[in-house]
Amino acid sequence: MINREHRMILSHSRCQQYRNGKFFRNLCFATVVILLMVATIICTPIFIKKLKGVEVATLVTITPTTTTVMKRELTTPPSASISSSTTTRRTTQSITKTATKEDAIRRRWTQNGTTVAGENGQGNRLNQLNNPSRIRIDVDDDQIMYILDRNNHRVVRWKQGEQEGEVVAGGNGIGSQLHQLNLPTDLIVEKSSNSLLICDYKNKRVIRWFIRNKTNVQQQIILSNFDCSSLAMDVDGNMYVSDHRKREIKRWRKGDTNGTVVANGNGLGDQSNERFPLIPIFIDGNHSVYAVDNYNHRILKWTKYAKEAIVVAGGHGRGDSLSQLAVPSELYVDYHGNIYLADEWNYRIVRWLNGAKEGSVIAGGNRQGRAPNQLNLPSSVAFDRQGNLYVADSGNHRIQRFDVINH
Ligand SMILES: *[C@@H]1O[C@H](CO)[C@@H](O)[C@H](O)[C@H]1NC(C)=O
Ligand SMILES: *[C@@H]1O[C@H](CO)[C@@H](O)[C@H](O)[C@H]1NC(C)=O
Ligand SMILES: *[C@@H]1O[C@H](CO)[C@@H](O)[C@H](O)[C@H]1NC(C)=O
Ligand SMILES: *[C@@H]1O[C@H](CO)[C@@H](O)[C@H](O)[C@H]1NC(C)=O
Questions:
Q1: S-S: 123 plus which of 128, 312, 377, 387, CB 3.0-4.6 Å?
Q2: Which residue's CA is the nearest one to ligand 3's atom 5?
Q3: pLDDT in tens, 283-297
Q4: Nearest ligand atom owner, CA of 213
Q5: Coil, helix or strand for 341?
């Protein structure tokens, strides 16, 4: 800065020597103006960056002051952490009857999505996301989103309309310490206990992260030493966990010492060649278990007490016809048993009505891209109380909202 100013003054005084010539006077004036402009252009971003650095530093810090270590193996009861309260359990995955069967079938969404978080490039600043892989909407406030920002190893709480989010879990670098995450793959937001349940994939554990307030952050390992793939909770607050190595889904009731296998590998294909060999799961209001069988590009459903699964979507190989899927990454099932799927490698969100032989495209499906009507590797679907659809558009590092047209 000083050097530049110095140089400007120097050149200005040199100009003085050519006072007599009008031409040189104009040239001299022009040079000073250009130098000033260049200096402004160069210095402004540096100044802004400095300002932003200060903001980031103050917003990011959620220091764990009290940290309880409760290491638990799979064989020890997770009861204390699964439920201590007897109040109504409220999770962002709870099934609420929001529409009649006919209304649910008639429901449509806008073709153009609105970006409600991210889309500022791939990165780890607070206004950026890096492969967001789960999106959850707060059950009490439709404006608040919880985003599993997978490749930033963090969970971000983001209010719609705001320019940036707030880190509420992880974001402390890759690692296996209690305040760190390593490629988290699934998320449950439990409002009754004000905590997050996170499937911490690379750390092979399920961790509970209390988010009461910034001065009191606590983590608790609920399950460890197993290949955590996906998490779900039923209406009674029982937790379900899928294990992609054993290819099984276990249920943990309150007070359980050992989990109970509710669905085993029968039917689930070998996924060891997949990029992430995950088994995303969902539990509907009747305790039916759904699992994504990526290897076979289909969705399996085990009704309560059933030993064998039935295919409820896909199952016709990989493809982009309406009866096919391509590596679906998450599913949501509504009160009436209709299935909503992030059909990741078809760049679309599809709905399979209960019992249907094929699905219909409800968002995207216009090839890979970043236009408002396009998606790029959609990896999660969620709905708010109005029925608006939210998609974690992983490859575009953004969250898209598709407004419901007819409620
Ligand atoms: C959707 O977005 C595209 C691209 O921005 C625009 O051309 C089109 O008019 C939009 N359609 C509607 C219905 O808003
Ligand atoms: C944070 O939470 C703890 C435990 O619930 C409570 O004791 C403390 O007062 C809270 N602090 C603030 C600033 O709300
Ligand atoms: C839990 O599993 C372990 C190991 O399989 C077994 O030894 C133990 O008896 C089981 N506990 C209960 C209460 O079933
Ligand atoms: C649960 O069962 C009831 C009664 O059979 C049915 O009306 C409802 O659609 C079922 N829910 C789901 C999600 O399948």
A1: 128
A2: 75
A3: 999 999 999 998 889
A4: 2
A5: strand
